[in-house]
Write a structure and sequence with these properties.
With about 450 residues, the protein is mostly beta strands. The protein contains two helices and 34 strands.
Length: about 450
């Protein structure tokens, strides 16, 4: 089924405070989703990355979080927006999340601000609590409901810090209660990377945690850890991304690991089902994208192209002429037949030497699209020349660290069962809907 041409339903400027990180959430309890946009240097805020010549003290001190309605109205703002002519440099995992953390029925926003973990009131942006962290390089990754009582959640933070020997990438991890009391002091996990998944793996009503190459019980004791072979380098080949789904439709969940090199799939008991040798497996997407709705996996490698795999890991196609990441499947059609598509965010490969000037002509090739189970790109979101990003002086070899890209969010905003797609950059937000939206 052809996905058709998406319908632009609104667009608005965020040029005064636009950033690379955004979250959709009902922050004020009015039943409508709002958008949180973060300007932050991410990992580059830390002393650990002080030798990065593409970031300076102005970048490292940057912090601005803005809440806007989906009409573009600013609701509140914390911090001061970036104002220099050269784009700010930002890199690293997400540093904010928005949900009801303490179980009081209201949305909170948790974020990393410098060396502190801060919780804001979602409706007003007012600070409710904060705690100083033992390092300046923590990033907030996830919340998990480890306990049954009152729906409360724990905040899980990860760090790169040589102060915790033996140092390894994205170790240690630290867990806080909703009131920001420490629940678990810093601890290391084998192969810890940039992703984790909380799920009730054993059906006891409490979340377990997939982190690194291990499954931790709700008390954070180790249930199992993958045996990846003698001499395996768990620092270089950390778990860049972890995803869980029922790959073979047998009613059991499988775990997909993008492991900085190889791509592997396990069951929830820690048995490796299959493994694909890779160069730098970074992310994957999975959905019913075969000719008859069979499961297809799109495995994305960092600056090395994309692979199409079947549910058993057999290679179906390999494209090195495109670069970027396939994201979460989008519910795009109702009824019978092909209903889901995967979003694709193109990305420029690293460019050296720096600094250099970006080219507005790159913009069209960086505009997001759908990608199907055969690896074909489908140009579904209407382009306007005014969406082109301006020529800017780029200080980072990874140009996306300076904002030369478009990001996407997909969520059912209006409750009709189909997802809307937000495409945003540091200047503008565009919201598209399916051509099937509103049809009986």
């Amino acid at each position: 089924m052809d996905p058709g041409t998406a319908i632009l339903i609104k667009e608005f400027s965020v040029a005064e405070f636009g950033g690379d990180r955004a979250e959709l959430a009902d922050i004020d309890g009015d039943g409508e989703l709002e958008l949180l946009i973060l300007q932050s240097p991410g990992q580059l805020k830390s002393r650990l990355h002080a030798d990065r010549s593409d970031a300076d003290d102005t970048d490292r001190s940057l912090h601005c979080l803005t809440a806007v309605s989906l009409e573009g109205e600013v609701l509140w703002q914390v911090g001061r927006p970036y104002r220099r002519d050269v784009p700010f440099t930002s890199h690293g995992p997400k540093s904010m999340l928005a949900e009801d953390i303490d179980g009081d029925g209201h949305c909170e926003v948790a974020m990393i601000r410098g060396s502190a973990l801060v919780i804001l009131d979602g409706a007003t942006g007012r600070q409710r609590s904060f705690v100083e962290l033992p390092s300046d390089n923590f990033d907030l990754l996830y919340t998990a409901q480890f306990i049954r009582s009152a729906g409360q959640r724990h905040l899980i933070c990860k760090v790169n810090d040589r102060a915790y020997p033996p140092w390894s990438y994205s170790n240690p991890t630290m867990v806080f209660r909703p009131d920001l009391r420490v629940w678990q002091e810093p601890f290391a996990v084998q192969g810890a990377g940039h992703s984790m998944v909380a799920l009730d793996a054993d059906g006891d009503g409490k979340d377990e945690l997939l982190i690194g190459y291990s499954l931790l019980d709700d008390d954070l004791s180790e249930t199992w850890s993958l045996d990846l072979g003698y001499g395996f380098d768990y620092v270089s080949n950390h778990a860049d991304n972890i995803a869980v789904s029922d790959l073979n439709l047998d009613g059991e969940l499988e775990v997909r690991y993008s492991g900085s090199k190889d791509f592997l799939v396990t069951d929830l008991k820690g048995n490796i089902l299959w493994r694909v040798r890779g160069k730098h497996s970074q992310r994957s997407a999975e959905g019913p994208w075969g000719p008859n709705g069979e499961t297809r996996i799109i495995m994305c490698e960092k600056n090395e192209g994309l692979w199409g795999l079947d549910q058993n890991g057999e290679a179906l196609w390999h494209r090195t002429d495109i670069n970027g990441y396939a994201g979460t499947p989008v519910q795009w059609w109702s009824g019978i037949g092909r209903t889901e598509w995967a979003l694709f965010e193109p990305q420029l490969r690293p460019i050296t030497p720096t600094p250099y000037d970006s080219d507005p002509a790159w913009s069209r090739d960086l505009w997001p699209s759908f990608i199907d189970g055969d690896g074909q790109l489908v140009d579904v979101f209407p382009w306007k020349d005014e969406y082109a990003q301006p020529r800017r002086r780029i200080r980072a070899e990874r140009s996306y660290d300076c904002g030369v890209r478009y990001r996407t969010l997909a969520q059912d905003i209006d409750g009709d069962g189909l997802d809307e797609v937000l495409i945003f950059d540091r200047y503008r937000v565009c919201i598209f809907k399916s051509p099937d939206a509103g049809n009986p």
